[in-house]
Design a protein that fits this description.
The two termini are 33 Å apart. The strands form 4 sheets. Strands 1, 2, 7, 8, 9, 10, 11, 17 and 18 form a 9-stranded mixed β-sheet that branches. Strands 5-4-13-14-15-12-16-19 form an 8-stranded mixed β-sheet. It contains 21 helices and 26 strands. The protein is globular, with a radius of gyration of 28 Å. The chain has a domain at 519-703: Glutaredoxin. The protein is of the alpha/beta class and 707 residues long.
């Protein structure tokens, strides 16, 4: 197989073929011209990534695995130790399965699931529990819909694992490059810390990026020539601002202070008495949300509302933070250690475009979309941006597809970003329903703050404004006193009853969204849409958990099923998702062992060779006995092509659907899968007329050769 791949690469990728279709021929020549400008002798770096967060690091690994040279600029002089994001959903974990065992490593190092599966609502961490919600169901661990489960793993720990992976594949982390180097060679396979992107200029064939560094009183600048610049530099993206891309949506939903601290004392207590991931704490002294990043290590982040300018960030000293923490815990902690305090603003915005400067500047992650943290879609959506973008960049740089395929990145991912923004807002509203039920409507607090700013801000001194604001909030929190919030008090009893209804009805903040996590679907883009089935594919977000329903419709993620490999004596169990290569821009065609399907595969191989596109065929057998009786069928039917694999359904439960039933298809159909595991095209029945012409149209549409 590898020999064939190398043969195809050297004798196919660099030899002009005569195409039957004139449009395809001109598209091919365009791709050849583009590819030749990206060869190893070019002084330009193929891809420069700005921002060394999880999204930028994942993208750099994916590109490197696909054979694309890249480097990363990071303006900070080191990697943050603030935990930040911590929930990794199913789809992101599936991406991590392709990164040299990263998913297994995360699962191995994360806290035990029983320590983080619940959200706990209480008056203090040692006081009254108002309710708790278990977000895990037995089916979340049976690995029927996905080969891997979700994870709870702090962002800085994930970053550390990603850096280790990058070092293993040849990357170097440096902070002295600008001060010690005067040459203009591309900074391949380097993560340059302390290097800030300060300008982006177009050249005849690419971009020139200016990076600056200040170290030990010395300042220097360096020009880096690149073909593509990817902005993964966070919610306040410099790249986005430099190219003038605006954001649309809801701005400034809430301001918060994030307090990162450790306490083994608190960790041990919660681990033994009331384990959970999030603790929503409401009492007369303070209100806050505690994120338990790791109870075993005693690592936490406390989020508290912040109302500037009456409240100042400078007021949040370590001592004040400790006092707030003690108020929410319900007692003092002997071993508390406040590590970091930072303000942040919650937005629900999406960039107006993800592409700029002739599609050479591309945004991904928080640079392209900023969500409320409700549901954990921020980092996860960014990781899936990188997964979508990597194979398309590689296709362009290798001459497989024209630059116009990059337009499908925005078409596909902006649609998902808008949906996830709406979903996060709905989930955030669900979170606000709990304090509202307790008599603390957050919208009233916002209105009070706005009134003070608009009506009293220019009249009263700041100290008096602060006293008024704190006084009003203190009076509001009195509704949380034990004398009111109890079953014997009619008002308290009514509020506690309303709270129970919220929890039991699944109307509080949710953690898992299987339907959106695994079931998101692209309507148009690098695919051949069937049109008919998309209109009802994605319901309006409600903020409630909905189950994932497998689908083989174009744009959907390939359904997972355990299969057994039968070809080449590799009889091992894996997922259908494992059939898609992570090391090549390779498409996958899934067929059944039928004469007509073999003929379709033969034609697909010919078209793929003509388009110089790597293709693998998977033959899905009904059972091992049938395969054993016809074990040489695939080899005979597909000769001389060798890049195929025979597999059989390895389901452990007879009640589970067969592969074609799972895909809601008959075995006379076929499924074409993209390198990012999304379905590019399907046919539910055999193609009886001119297969060659039909498949040329299919591949042309997917690769945007017809644009």
């Amino acid at each position: 197989m590898e020999a064939l791949r190398l043969t195809r690469r050297f004798h196919g990728f660099y030899r002009t073929r005569s195409l039957n279709n004139a449009i395809l021929c001109s598209s091919y020549n365009l791709r050849r011209d583009l590819s030749s400008s990206f060869d190893g002798h070019d002084s330009r770096l193929p891809v420069l990534i700005v921002g060394a967060g999880p999204v930028g690091l994942v993208l750099s690994i994916l590109l490197t695995k696909l054979g694309v040279k890249c480097a990363v600029l990071e303006k900070n002089s080191g990697f943050s130790r603030h935990p930040q994001a911590h929930f990794i959903n199913n789809r992101s974990m599936e991406v991590f399965c392709k990164l040299n065992g990263l998913a297994d490593e995360i699962l191995r190092h994360q806290p035990p699931v029983d320590l983080w599966r619940k959200f706990v609502y209480c008056t203090s961490l040692t006081g009254q529990v108002l309710g708790s919600v278990d977000h895990m169901q037995p089916k979340d661990f049976d690995r029927i819909v996905s080969p891997v489960s979700v994870a709870h793993f702090s962002q800085y720990k994930l970053t550390r694992l990603l850096i280790e992976q990058l070092k293993h594949i040849g990357f170097h982390v440096r902070s002295d490059d600008l001060l010690n180097s005067d040459d203009i060679k591309p900074a391949e396979q380097q993560i340059l810390l302390g290097h800030e992107c300060t300008s982006i200029n177009t050249t005849e064939n690419g971009l020139t990026v200016t990076a600056s560094i200040t170290k030990e009183g010395k300042h220097a600048e360096k020009k880096i020539h690149c073909n593509f610049l990817i902005g993964t530099d966070g919610a306040s993206s410099t790249v986005r601002k430099l190219v003038g891309i605006g954001m649309s949506g809801e701005h400034d939903l809430q301001k918060l202070i994030s307090i990162h601290f450790t306490s083994q004392d608190l960790g041990q207590y919660l681990m033994n008495e009331r384990p959970g991931m999030l603790f929503f704490i409401f009492n007369t002294e303070a209100i806050g949300v505690l994120v338990a990043h790791d109870l075993m290590q005693g690592e936490f982040v406390l989020q508290v509302p912040f109302y500037p300018p009456q409240q100042r960030f400078e007021d949040f000293s370590s001592r004040m933070c400790e006092k707030t923490i003690f108020s929410l815990v319900g007692r003092e902690l002997a071993d508390i250690n406040v590590l970091d305090v930072k303000p942040w603003v919650m937005h629900a915005e999406v960039a107006e475009t993800f592409l700029a400067i002739n599609n050479r500047v591309i945004l991904a992650g928080d640079a392209a979309h900023r969500f409320p943290p409700a549901g954990g879609f921020g980092m996860n959506t960014g990781i899936q941006d990188a997964h979508n973008l990597a194979w398309k960049l590689a296709s362009v740089l290798k001459g497989i597809a024209p630059p116009s395929i990059l337009l499908t990145y925005e078409t596909e991912r902006r649609q998902i970003a808008l949906y996830n923004t709406a979903l996060s807002v709905e989930n955030f509203k669900a979170a606000m329903a709990v304090p509202a039920a307790l008599g603390l409507d957050p919208s009233i607090a916002t209105s009070v703050h706005r009134t003070i700013n608009e009506n009293l801000g220019s009249i009263l001194p700041s100290d008096l404004q602060r006293a008024i604001l704190n006084g009003i909030f203190s009076i509001g929190r009195m509704q949380l006193s034990g004398s009111i919030l109890n079953e014997n008090n009619p008002l308290g009893s009514s509020r506690l009853s309303k709270l129970r209804q919220i929890f039991e009805g699944g109307k509080s903040l949710q953690l898992q969204f299987p339907a959106e996590d695994l079931g998101f679907r692209y309507s148009t883009g690098a695919l051949v849409s069937d049109g008919d089935s998309f209109s009802n594919a994605q319901e309006k977000p409600t903020g409630r958990r909905r189950d994932y329903v497998p689908s083989s419709d174009p744009g959907s993620r390939l359904p997972h099923m355990n299969i057994q490999l039968l070809s080449n004596s590799k009889e091992r169990i894996c997922s259908t998702l494992d059939l898609v290569s992570a090391n090549d821009v390779e498409f996958l065609l899934i067929i059944s062992p039928m004469k007509e399907s073999y003929q379709l595969a033969q034609t697909a191989f010919k078209v793929a060779q003509e388009f110089q596109l790597p293709l693998k065929v998977c033959i899905m057998w009904q059972d091992k006995a049938t395969y054993a009786a016809r074990s040489s069928s695939s080899e005979r039917a597909l000769s001389p092509w060798k890049n195929f694999i025979d597999v059989v359904d390895a389901k452990t439960c007879p009640s589970l659907a067969s592969w074609w039933d799972l895909c809601q298809m008959t075995d006379s159909g076929a499924i074409l899968v993209r390198p990012d595991e999304h379905i590019a095209w399907q046919t539910k029945s055999e193609i009886k007329n001119d297969r060659l012409s039909e498949l040329k149209k299919v591949f042309s549409a997917i690769l945007r050769l017809d644009s």
